[in-house]
Amino acid sequence: MISTHFYYLFVDLGCLIVPFIFSFHPRLRFYKNYKALLVGTLVMMLFFIPWDIFFTSNGIWGFNEKYTCGAYLFNLPLEEWFFFLCIPYACLFTYECMKIFFKKEPLSRLVKPLLIVLSVIMICIALMHASQWYTFSAHLLCGIFLLLHHFVLRSKYIGWFMLTYIIILLPFIISNGILTGVRFWEYPVLNTHVEMIQEKIVWYDNTHNLGLRIFSMPVDDLAYGLLMLLLTTTIYEWRLSKTA
Questions:
Q1: Which helix (H) or strand (E) holds 190?
Q2: DSSP symbol at 27
Q3: HSE toward the beta carbon, residue 208, CA cutoff 13 A
Q4: Residues 83, 40, 95, CA angle at the centre, nearest 5°?
Q5: Alpha-carbon span 100 to 181, nearest angstrom
Q6: Which string of b and e fits 30-65 if b means at least 16 CB within 10 Å?
Q7: How far apart are CA 132 and CA 208, in angstroms?
Q8: How many degrees, rounded to 5, is the angle at CA 40 between CA 37 and CA 43?
Q9: What H or E segment, with its residue span, contains residue 44?
Q10: Which has the closest alpha carbon to 213: 162, 183, 164, 173?
Q11: How far apart are CA 19 and CA 25, in angstroms?
Q12: At CA 180, angle to CA 62 and CA 42, rounded to 5?
């Protein structure tokens, strides 16, 4: 029987293995963009790792030692560091696939109003929940960053990114579902009974989030994940433009 101490590691590897193998496909050759990927990931981690450390230190979320290998760096399990490498890798691999399948920017007519609507919704949620640190920070920062892309950066790749995000939502929910409740499928799709969730690899202080789960995953993770992946993609595209 597999030790529970490897569960978090297996989630990381499960997200990485297929994108990594197909990165060497002759049509994609994603490995040629590894430098841009590394720069994008490192810049993202410079922001998200301190955020993670601060929230962990303040008990806003934490990690169950039953499901980690026991090695820590700056109060975070090594699997958490690995998470910030694997998830962006899988996202940007999918993103590059979308750029091959769709030669023209998809969602071109929808993406601008989508950014505005999403940003307004997120900023409103943040302002309505200013005392809930996870909800406030994730939604406010994500909403501001979406507005930045729309009004300042005017990114020509945002359509490909948003399509990628929509496509990876299902695996994102599955992986985060396992992390926040190993048998996540046993819970309601929209779950307000957060106290019933068992076997949490990553646990949350629910006074600092909306208290609404998709299965076992806090709905706040959608804003957090969007911000993390869009920041990585933004730096990735900037780096690619410098080497073109």
A1: strand 190-191
A2: T
A3: 15
A4: 80
A5: 35
A6: beebeebbebbbebbbeebbebbeebbeeebbbbbe
A7: 4
A8: 145
A9: helix 34-57
A10: 173
A11: 10
A12: 65
Residue 107: its pLDDT value, please?
A: 77
**What is the pTM (predicted TM-score) of this model?**
0.95
The first and second tokens of residue 123, run together, are 């900023």
Give start and end residues of each alpha helix (H) in 70-212: 78-101, 111-128, 133-148, 158-180
Q: Enumerate the domain spans of the chain.
A: 4-243
Question: Position 163: which residue type?
Answer: L
The alpha-carbon radius of gyration of the chain (Å, integer) is 18
Give me the amino acid identity at 28: L
Residues 159-175, buried b or exposed e (16+ Cβ, 10 A)? Answer: bbbbbbbeebeebbbbb
Provide the pLDDT for residue 1: 64
Q: Which pair of structure tokens corresponds to residue 51?
A: 């955020």
Neighbours of 3 (CB within 10 A): 9
Q: What is the DSSP letter of 129?
A: T
Distances (CA, A) of 132 to 125, 141, 234: 11, 14, 28
CA atoms of 16 and 80, how far apart (whole Å): 14
Task: Kindly state the average pLDDT of the residues 184-198.
Answer: 94
Instruction: Answer yes or no: is pLDDT of 57 > 90.
Output: yes
Number of Cα atoms under 13 Å in the Cβ half of residue 216: 24
Amino acid at 230: L
Predicted pLDDT of residue 159: 92
Owner of token pair 């293995």: 17
Comparing CA positions, the residue from 157, 7, 178, 179 lying closest to residue 92 is 157
